[in-house]
């Protein structure tokens, strides 16, 4: 990098010397030399620096922003620490990984953590044994270096939105004394949402290249588990919906449905039907965003697709949730067992298109779903049905910027701490005749169109040494929503 800067500096000196001592040079020659200098200066800026500058120019507030946002219904305290160090503190030895839908023992915890660490993938599981979980939670919270944070998708999204002083935030969820202490002053919690004890979630982080036994993590990520009965039963959903009349929000953000996987199948189905009834009570002129999270039960995911998706206007999800969604509903590329490296943009695009075509709003279908915010480590895509959402260039850029700043824990993106991981060329579909797109760092938000549906793609500047990965998806979705504008219908 320094060699390139020296070359450009010498070029600038040479041009200045010629202008001073060679006035007889033709103006055309001087213009040509000036153009060469500017080109050299532009190339001297890193790809990352050019992208940051382009994002800054693109990120503008919508003409009609939100004033009051209601968020619910999962909230907890996150205990964040090194996964490997916790497992060692529990006396567990490295071994083979194995996926477990529900964790019933420490052995299950070790195997599931190893399984996902090897893939570098995020996951969330329910720990069924209350006594064993509380012992593990105590060990975790007392471990040197363990940190306590606001947790739960709803609380994290509310906390992120609350950093904007112009917004008023209502949070409904099981809020205990520690969580209430951690929340921003701009977050209003109804008295009915307060409870005597906090719900704790354990966040086991690992870094890129970190090793445990024979396993080496390909990138930084986290494994989450809990024995959370309040969030698991969506205890605060009815409180949330009943609070909307008084609060009068102009946007509702809903999350926590995935927490019901810890319930029995009968209880889960009954509670989902009650949730659908409650969501249906929200006035249709208030847009609803649903934030998804890691799930393992395909039947439950299918029920959410068919029963909840038509009631919401927008959803947010990552690559693991997207693949599980298409597998659960026999969508495109459902035979793909897992992602290999950076998810193929064409495959992702096909699945997102299918969701809106098959489950989104059309003239024939009574569905409100018109927007999907997809995020993976290397890039984001915002997909919208034409005519319903505006300012999406700014929204997708803002989400990508938030990923870079939050992961590195910096106020602005430090280009020395991030790198470009997204493909420089990709195709927009693996099913239909695709367009081939080459990424231009000076115009990092790419747009394409497919049968009345718009796609906005931007790369992410990935943090080289992430400080914290938990809540990254929630921060991305919150920032994307903050810069989005819904058109009145």
Can you describe this structure?
This protein has 489 residues and is of the alpha/beta class. Helices cover 39% and strands 21% of the residues. It has 16 helices and 24 strands. The protein has helices at residues 2-21, 27-44, 47-58, 83-89, 106-119, 130-142, 153-161, 177-182, 229-232, 237-247, 265-280, 298-307, 319-328, 345-359, 392-408, 472-482; strands spanning 68-72, 76-82, 102-103, 123-127, 147-151, 168-172, 187-188, 200-206, 211-212, 215-216, 221-226, 251-255, 288-291, 314-318, 371-375, 379-385, 389-390, 418-420, 425-427, 436-438, 446-450, 453-459, 461-463, 485-486. The strands form six sheets. Strands 7-6-1-12-13-14-15-16-22-21 form a ten-stranded mixed beta sheet, with helices on both faces. A six-stranded mixed beta sheet has the order 3-4-11-8-2-5. The chain has a two-stranded antiparallel ribbon with strand order 9-10. β6, α8 and β7 form a beta-alpha-beta unit. The chain is globular.
């Amino acid at each position: 990098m320094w060699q390139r800067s020296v070359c450009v500096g010498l070029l600038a000196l040479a041009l200045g010397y010629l202008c001073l001592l060679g006035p007889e040079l033709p103006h055309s020659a001087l213009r040509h030399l000036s153009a060469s200098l500017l080109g050299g200066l532009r190339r001297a800026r890193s790809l990352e620096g050019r992208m940051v500058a382009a994002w800054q120019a693109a990120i503008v507030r919508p003409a009609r922003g939100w004033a009051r946002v209601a968020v619910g219904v999962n909230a907890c305290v996150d205990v964040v620490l090194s996964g490997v160090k916790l497992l060692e503190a529990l006396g567990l030895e490295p071994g083979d990984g194995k996926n477990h839908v529900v964790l019933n023992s420490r052995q299950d915890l070790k195997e599931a953590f190893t399984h996902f660490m090897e893939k570098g993938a995020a996951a969330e599981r329910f720990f069924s044994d209350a006594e064993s979980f509380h012992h593990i939670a105590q060990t975790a919270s007392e471990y040197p270096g363990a940190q306590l944070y606001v947790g739960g998708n709803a609380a994290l999204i509310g906390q992120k939105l609350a950093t904007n002083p112009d917004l008023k935030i209502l949070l409904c969820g099981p809020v205990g004394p520690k969580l209430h202490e951690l929340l921003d002053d701009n977050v209003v919690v109804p008295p009915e949402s307060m409870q005597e004890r906090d719900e704790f979630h354990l966040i086991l982080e690992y870094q890129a290249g970190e090793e445990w036994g024979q396993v080496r993590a390909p990138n930084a990520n986290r494994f989450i588990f809990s024995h959370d009965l309040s969030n698991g039963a969506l205890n605060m959903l009815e409180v949330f919906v009943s609070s909307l009349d008084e609060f009068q929000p102009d946007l509702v953000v809903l999350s926590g449905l995935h927490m019901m996987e810890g319930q029995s199948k009968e209880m889960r189905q009954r509670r989902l039907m009650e949730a659908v009834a409650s969501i249906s009570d929200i006035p249709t002129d208030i847009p609803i965003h649903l934030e998804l999270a890691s799930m393992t039960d395909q039947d439950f995911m299918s029920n959410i697709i068919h029963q909840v998706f038509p009631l919401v206007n927008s959803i947010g999800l990552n690559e693991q949730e997207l693949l599980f969604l298409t597998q659960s509903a026999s969508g495109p590329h459902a035979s793909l067992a897992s992602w290999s490296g950076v998810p193929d943009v064409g495959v992702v695009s096909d699945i997102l298109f299918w969701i809106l075509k098959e489950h989104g709003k059309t003239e024939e279908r009574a569905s409100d779903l018109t927007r999907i915010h997809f995020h993976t480590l290397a890039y984001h895509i915002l997909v919208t049905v034409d005519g319903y959402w505006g300012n999406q260039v700014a929204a997708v850029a803002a989400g990508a910027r938030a990923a870079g700043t939050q992961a590195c824990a910096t106020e602005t993106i430090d280009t020395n701490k991030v790198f470009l991981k997204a493909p420089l060329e990709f195709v927009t579909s693996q099913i239909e005749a695709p367009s081939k797109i080459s990424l231009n760092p000076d115009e990092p938000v790419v747009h394409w169109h497919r049968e009345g549906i718009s796609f906005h793609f931007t790369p992410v500047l990935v943090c080289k040494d992430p400080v914290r990965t938990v809540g990254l998806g929630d921060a991305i979705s919150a920032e994307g929503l903050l810069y989005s504008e819904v058109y009145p219908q």
